[in-house]
Amino acid sequence: MIVLVVGANGATGSKLVEQLLIQKHKVKVIVRSPKKLPELWRDNDSIQIISASVLELSDIEMIEIVKDCHAVASCLGHNLTWKGVYGQPRRLVTDATQRLCSAIKSNNPRKPIKYVLMNTTGNRNRDLNEPISFAQKCVIGLLRLLLPPHVDNEKAADYLRAQIGQNNDFIEWVAVRPDSLINEKDVTSYEIHTSPTRSAIFNAGKVSRINVGHFMASLINDNNLWAKWKGQMPVIYSKSKKD
Ligand SMILES: NC(=O)c1ccc[n+]([C@@H]2O[C@H](COP(=O)([O-])OP(=O)(O)OC[C@H]3O[C@@H](n4cnc5c(N)ncnc54)[C@H](OP(=O)(O)O)[C@@H]3O)[C@@H](O)[C@H]2O)c1
């Protein structure tokens, strides 16, 4: 398969690319600074590096890039600097999702293209009844006011859920919701749930970025796993060593 990854040089995106390469896929990456990429990627025939800022691509360029892709994955996230959090583009993840989906639709693919969005347990799947405590509602309300990236993550998933929906001829999607991200060297056991099993604010679990990358790559690679989760917002936690 040919897979486009945006946010590919990020801490999670790079793990996703590695997992896709292990699974023998061809990967296209759109990155702002190719110089920062691992040396091994630059000499790898299975990776096509597109040097651009994703939202600065024209519609025609985007349509051309996604034309031969069977799947698109986004690990985009706002850089944790003042400019990254409060500057433009405030709707980085949402706008990239909408524009990439429009580009996919413009190509009228014969089979639906898989779109995998890295999202967050701080976001609820409004297709389901996911109750949260009053205290958590208050904190999430504050995050919406104070942290534009949180709203961006919510809107990106809402776009897939409400606009692309469950019966789109051209796009099928999964929004993966990791809890608190940590770094680990190797893939370990992890668990996937339909909805959070703990509070993302007051009792967050942990998940390694490499496990998130592994799950996202597995969704793309494994049609049975895809059929199980498509149109949903699975939550991922790493299993603790004692489980
Ligand atoms: N931290 C957590 O515990 C947690 C938990 C759940 C979900 N999440 C979500 O997961 C996301 C990814 O996490 P991560 O740690 O892998 O993030 P990361 O390492 O900061 O990666 C972010 C990626 O987005 C790209 N990016 C940022 N601003 C951009 C812009 N204006 N235009 C184009 N590309 C841009 C970065 O590229 P450049 O290198 O070019 O900037 C990078 O590739 C987070 O941002 C968050 O929304 C986080």
Automatic annotation (TrEMBL):
The NAD(P)-binding domain is annotated at 7-222
Pfam families from the UniProt entry:
NAD_binding_10
- UniProt xrefs under PANTHER family: FLAVIN REDUCTASE-RELATED (PTHR15020), OS06G0360300 PROTEIN (PTHR15020:SF11)
Q: What is the protein name given in its UniProt record?
A: NAD(P)H-binding
Q: Which organism is it from?
A: Lutibacter agarilyticus
